[in-house]
Amino acid sequence: MDRKTQIVIVGGGAGGLELAARLGARFGRKRHDIILVERNGTHIWKPLLHEVAAGSLDANLDEVGYRSHGHRWGYRFFQGTLDGIDRAARRITVAPLLDEDGRELIGQHAIRYDYLVLAMGSVSNDFGTPGVRDHCLFLDDRAGADRFRQILLNHCLRVSRARSEDPESDARVRVAIVGGGATGVELAAELFNAAAALRHYGLEVFDESRLEVTLIEAGPRILPALPERLAEAAQAELEALGVTVRTGIPVTAASAEGILLAGGETVPADLKVWAAGVKGAPPGGGLDGLEINRNGQCVVRPTLQATRDDRILAIGDCAACLLPGSDRPVPPRAQAAHQMAATAYGNLVRLMGGRAPRAFVYRDHGSLVSLSRFSTVGSLMGNLVGGRMAIEGRLARFVYTSLYRMHLIAIHGWIRGLALIAIGRVHAVVRPRLKLH
Ligand SMILES: Cc1cc2nc3c(=O)[nH]c(=O)nc-3n(C[C@H](O)[C@H](O)[C@H](O)COP(=O)(O)OP(=O)(O)OC[C@H]3O[C@@H](n4cnc5c(N)ncnc54)[C@H](O)[C@@H]3O)c2cc1C
Hints:
Blueprint: E1 5-10, H1 16-27, E2 32-38, E3 42-43, H2 49-54, H3 59-62, E4 64-65, H4 66-73, E5 76-79, E6 82-86, E7 91-94, E8 97-98, E9 104-106, E10 109-112, E11 115-118, E12 123-124, H5 132-135, E13 137-138, H6 142-165, E14 173-178, H7 182-198, E15 211-217, H8 228-241, E16 244-247, E17 251-254, E18 258-261, E19 266-268, E20 271-274, E21 278-279, E22 298-300, E23 305-306, E24 309-314, E25 319-321, H9 334-352, E26 366-371, E27 375-382, E28 387-392, H10 393-412, H11 414-430
Helix pairs in contact: 1-9, 1-10, 10-11
Bound molecules: flavin-adenine dinucleotide (FAD).
Flavin-adenine dinucleotide is lined by residues 10-16, 37-40, 46-47, 49-50, 81-82, 119-121, 139, 141, 182-183, 186, 281, 283, 316-318, 332-335, 337.
């Protein structure tokens, strides 16, 4: 009997999960095995992590269990972390899976592939800045967001306690966020949304005036991906909320006390968040000679195939894809991962049918930044608006939430996706505004 064609996808995030669902739905299990290897048991769409961190989104409600999702869509799920690739044998090695106490649940194992898709995303890039790994928090995954929320809540409780014992107390929760890109800006605004809600949940003496948030950006302005006018509007909105925005100041180190700036000043902080750029995170055992750039990403051709291996594709944040006519690689964004998943799907179908793969075309639909319930700003690009159009307010909010809705429809199909969107709206009304545990 012929062996089944095995397509292995590593990483079930914004790109990988969409690809696994499409391939599973198309090929099922008769003559193919679509295998998703992912280190976590559940998926949460990464752009929601700042809301999880602030407590304004309960990730338990929005997460997707890979096992049940795989059962429904016809792919197999292996929980584990990619450790290495053997290209000659067309095999990947998955590291042993450990339980919470460090005991081995599943030993190291190998999975063969006919085609391999790397969709492992990215991690925060600390650029080797001293003290950052030890003293800063990162919004790289659900665990990091949960950790941030727990520490934030503990500090809020401390401040609330100090103020109820001494109403004159000037105790505050001090948060320093490094990086004035979308993640840092969105987190800063979301924190004020959460702080305002805390007084409804037993912290009567706590409100947003007890929050001291400093956003630090080395570049000349925040939100470099947006037009200057919108970045200025976003900065004005943040400052109106109470955020101190410091631009043009590089960070030299992080310590237990706070963030050290060039020139010697320290921004004191109880919570320090690093959101100043991302890099690829190749597995410990390496990628067996695949081309990797200085940023740790796998270099791919426009077809999304690795430069040194036709059977290996990379999509999303972990791929370095420079398209003809462009001087910059495709940016690490959810919309790029979504579009690359569609191209990878088409190319795998073509490759298996003996046809030539097609080049990826990146359609930049613009950038949108949510300032929580206070505002949304951004710019739309492309055919829809005939160029670049700045948008703010309700329209921007609508387009911003549409990105997540598209992801839900891509991974659940139209009927279930639309039902989940409707349920999400009901939850927004009937559930508590904050997750406090
Ligand atoms: C707070 C925040 C807000 C954002 N907002 C936006 C936004 O508004 N718009 C936008 O376009 N983008 C936004 N982004 C960026 C966006 O989230 C990423 O570009 C997108 O998620 C990349 O998709 P991906 O599939 O490449 O990786 P991911 O979605 O990160 O998925 C990677 C998956 O691979 C798994 N994995 C990693 N390594 C291994 C391994 N060795 N073995 C097995 N599994 C592994 C991970 O657990 C993860 O599930 C935001 C990011 C953050 C952090």
